[in-house]
Amino acid sequence: MTIEPGGDDARLARTLAQAAGLALLEVRAGSAEGTELKDAGDARAQAVLAGLLAESCPGDAVLSEEAADSAARLSADRVWIIDPLDGTREFSERPRSDWAVHVAFWEKGELAAGAVALPARDVAYGTDEPPVLPVRAEGPIRLAVSRSRPPAFVTAVAEELGAELVPMGSAGVKCSSVWTGEADAYLHAGGQFEWDSAAPVAVARAAGLHTSRIDGSPLVYNRPDPKLPDLLVCRTEFAETILKTVARHNSEVSTR
């Protein structure tokens, strides 16, 4: 694939995510299973993204889950933060569709663009064409949670809120469920890295959603330590209620 140098970064993010997604679908159509399929998917998507970035933005730094980190990114003005395959477990469990590709672009201290592709659903969301939030139907708050291992902390918060838990796979899928209207919030406190949330947060912000740490502080990217363990993405009308409830539970845990 040839990408025109100097193209719009938001449009490029979408193109990159879709290209990696197509490669992952090819891998998934093969005969590999289990760990072999996971490893093949990670490697193929990383190779596609690394190759296209080297071709289109040779001077930019890259932070990827699937590549060695370099301190050079900390002094760079332009950094791509990528998760070539978000939801490796879901990817390996055919025919599940709740896995994603994340491509975010950080520039001079802020997320500037991003795209989240859901290849098995043949859809991609990006800051070049931000999602339009649907009108919310009446009912309890719906929290997107892990299909296999919802954390006890989030379950306790949901119980206090009277919220409904909506199980699904990868972080990108959970975030996308908020801007598509399938859920009202994604609350995570079980440990993540910058590549898990950068692209979804960029798209969520472009869609007008609230994004923050679970204590309400800003999400900061391209830091020396890429660990970014917690996250809240939600409709703005629920942000204050959720953050106050989370704060009460954090206080209870810290005093035990």
UniProtKB/TrEMBL annotation:
<protein>
    <recommendedName>
        <fullName>3'(2'),5-bisphosphonucleoside 3'(2')-phosphohydrolase</fullName>
    </recommendedName>
</protein>
<dbReference type="InterPro" id="IPR020583">
    <property type="entry name" value="Inositol_monoP_metal-BS"/>
</dbReference>
<dbReference type="GO" id="GO:0008441">
    <property type="term" value="F:3'(2'),5'-bisphosphate nucleotidase activity"/>
</dbReference>
<dbReference type="Pfam" id="PF00459">
    <property type="entry name" value="Inositol_P"/>
</dbReference>
<dbReference type="InterPro" id="IPR050725">
    <property type="entry name" value="CysQ/Inositol_MonoPase"/>
</dbReference>
<keyword id="KW-0378">Hydrolase</keyword>
<keyword id="KW-0460">Magnesium</keyword>
<keyword id="KW-0479">Metal-binding</keyword>
<dbReference type="InterPro" id="IPR000760">
    <property type="entry name" value="Inositol_monophosphatase-like"/>
</dbReference>
